[in-house]
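Record format v2
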Amino acid sequence: MHELPQTLVNGLTLGALYGLIAIGYTMVYGIVQLINFAHGEIFMIGGFGALTIYIWLPSGTALSLALPLMLIGGIVASVAIATAAERFAYRPLRGGPRLAPLITAIGLSIALQQAVWAFYPDAKKPRSFPQFEGSSFEILDNLHIQRGDAFLLIAAPLCMLALGLFVSKSRAGRAMQATAQDPDTAKLMGINTDRIIVMAFAIGGAFAAVAALSHGLKYGQINFEMGFIAGLKAFTAAVLGGIGNIYGAMLGGVVLGVVEALAIKYIQDIPGMDQLGGGAWKDVWAFTLLILVLLVRPQGLLGERVADRA
Amino acid sequence: MRHRSLLIMTTAITAGALTLSACGSRDDKDDSGGKDGKTTVVIGVDAPLTGSLSALGQGIKNSVDLAAKIANKNNEVDGVTFKVKSFDDQAVPSSGKANATSMVDDEDILGAVGPLNSGVAQSMQGVFDRGDLAQVSPANTNPALSQGDDWASGKKSRPFKTYFRTATTDIIQGRFAAQYYFKDAKKRKVFVIDDKQAYGNGLATIFAEEFKRLGGKVVGRDHLTVKETDFSGISNKVKSSGADSVYFGGQYPEGGLLSDQVKQAGAQVPVMGGDGIYDPAFIKASGTSNDGDLATSVGYPVEQLDSAKTFVKNYADQHYKDPYAAYGGYSYDAGWAIIQAVKAVVEDNDGKLPDDARAKITEALGKVSFDGVTGKVSFDKYGDTTNKQLTVYKVTKGAWKSVKSETFKD
């Protein structure tokens, strides 16, 4: 059991990454009840935006100096694509059949992926991403934290805190809650719901960009396909935590990441379960958990606080 | 009424289209026969031209294209002009099958090069066999493709007469890797990982068997999922298993990340793989150093063969957008083997293509023999290459360097 702390930390970092992406699914769903399947690609584009800034900077720039600029570059790219998608792909379909925007999202996802594949230089193979120099931090004898993971472990809670404050305290945040509860009444109260919807897409995009930067720092590479699996897992996390609830998205992500890490490590040690453990089965265990949670709590882990969904 | 007119219109259009397409193909033939008396022979290429393996696929397509261009320039087969038609399978078996069907339906296609993935090849073999269309893969290494599903028990039988390959099988590659790890690198405790695909799983299994036979110990076995990026769980298991080496059956996108994460987990052991990870992208994939990682690949290093140097130069002269990548040489040889088979058939038939050209070419392929980019090219009774030269490459200062080349002996 002496490897438990390391396994938990691995799961936690992976989960924090899922959670950051899941915010985008949950925000948009909370406001317009749309599952934006192109969100995985918005995450991917954030990574390429950050990389572009790094390439533009004079070579030899210290990563700690470049990082804020890369973050801005990633956020600009993600938010631009996310809001453009809202304006040109989803808004014309608002009020139409529910399936129309869903199919549009899938099409958009493929289009964005292929656009990066075709037009970003050298993107047919994974592009390497700058990484922090130096070895990992040794917290305990058996517990190492990579420098790239440290960024994620600091950024994720900060972003959550900022978002929590924004939604509960600011005027725009309260307008968001109102729109989530009842868009028609919100409109009657003088809230510009179109603006609120754009804002939800933008916030989701910004979180995806933070996630993409963390992803690049953690794994040292980004590629045009990385949005697919990450998006799928993040969507699962959002449902697990209770879609529409921002804290639920983060909790769902962390739970999913930790379950995956534990499943890889420990399931096969249970007598008789040798064949059902390891990396091959981790997704099976993660989805088994999802189904069990949804059987007991169809609204997800934190799904009951309807007033908070935004 | 509306329905009826619609029906009539559809029928008319369909009939029209059929007539036109029939005319079209006849026209094509007349055309190709008529223009300065030359016949056009099309070589179909099936490879992943989009998707994460597209870098390899584009290299395959361009290399076959180069073979066709060189053949036309040298007037390799009198009275025949070669053309290449490429199909994208995206590394998906069902797309490969659809492409194989299109190729069989296209009467001008007399031979096919591809695919890249063993899993895709499985779905294409039957279609080609029924269509009598010869297929030469530059990259498939799964033994069952040419030796049947029972190859492991020694009962080899060739399932499809139309299937050939210029790549060596995993039996040879996996055992060669195990012998290198055990005898040359003196490794005794290996952790074996694969990506659950036909290629990766097969290769890893053959490696593990041979390593155990030699007296080594497999201290752990696990699988990862293609397109995922987080392998920290598996990496921790490698560390706690006390393994002195890792063998990975799979492709470079996952391999590069895995190697990096194994080292980050604190296990300073080399990762070895097959030709699937022998690519510059494997080294680029991980931010920190892969130094010491190993890969086996078929044939001798390109720099050591004169014929390969000519290939590299000709390829550069064409200014293709993408590099020839790991399978360029085998793809050129595969294309050239088809060209040679066409040549043999045409020369046997008074300088013209016979009516049953496809069957004749399939038969002739079994007998071709020439010095190709990757060494001597000829096929054994299973359709496998007789070339059993292999090379071990090692990552040294961020680049692949060959460390050992030899002909595999049982």
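Chain A is about 70% helix and 5% strand.
The radius of gyration of chain A is 20 Å.
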